[in-house]
Amino acid sequence: MAARAPAKATSSLLQSLQKWYYNAAGFNKYGLVRDDILHEDDDVKEAVRRLPENLYNDRNFRIKRALDLSMKHQILPTEMWTKFEQDVRYLEPYLKEVITERKEKEEWDKK
C-alpha cells in the first residue's frame, strides 16, 4: 500500500506541471487547441484536408479569431480560454492514418 502513494503523488505532480505548461504556452488564451498550432508539414496538411467539414470549419474559425486577436494585441476573456481538460486532439487520428499511409508507400517504393 505504501508504494502506491508516491506513484499517485507523482501522477498528480505531473498533471499539475502539464496544466501549468499548457497555460504558460499561451495559445489557449486565443481559444486555440494543441492541434491548431502544429507545424504544418505535408502530413499535417493532408490530415487537415481529410477532416470532416464541421471540424475543418471549427479549426478555421479558431485560427482566424486568434489571428484577429493577435493583430489587435488582445486575448479572449478568461472564461473563453481553452481549458486543459477541454483540449481534444481532433487531428490525431487523421494524422496517424496519413503517417501510416506515407510509411507504407515508402516501404512499397523501396521494393
Characterization of the model:
The protein has helices at residues 4-25, 42-49, 53-71, 92-110. It has 111 residues and is mostly helical. The protein has one domain (26-110): Cytochrome Bc1 Complex, Chain F, CATH 1.10.1090.10. It is flat, with a radius of gyration of 18 Å. InterPro entries: QCR7, QCR7_sf. Its main location: mitochondrion.
Query: H/E order of the elements?
Result: HHHH
The tally of domains stands at: 1
CATH homologous superfamily label: Cytochrome b-c1 complex subunit 7
**Mean pLDDT over the residues:** 92
Q: Globular, elongated, flat, extended or rod-shaped: what is the shape?
A: flat
What percentage of residues falls in helices of 4 or more residues?
A: 55-70%
Structure class: mainly alpha
Largest sheet: none
What does the radius of gyration come to? 18 Å
Helix segment tally: 4
**In the CATH scheme, what's the topology name?**
Cytochrome Bc1 Complex, Chain F
* Strand portion: under 5%
CATH class type? Mainly Alpha
Kindly, what is the distance between the CA atoms of the first and last residues, rounded to a whole number of angstroms?
54 Å
- Under the CATH scheme, the architecture is Orthogonal Bundle
| Low-pLDDT segments, ≥5 res | none
GO cellular component, one term: mitochondrial inner membrane
Keywords: Electron transport, Membrane, Mitochondrion, Mitochondrion inner membrane, Respiratory chain, Transport
Family: Belongs to the UQCRB/QCR7 family.
Protein name: Cytochrome b-c1 complex subunit 7
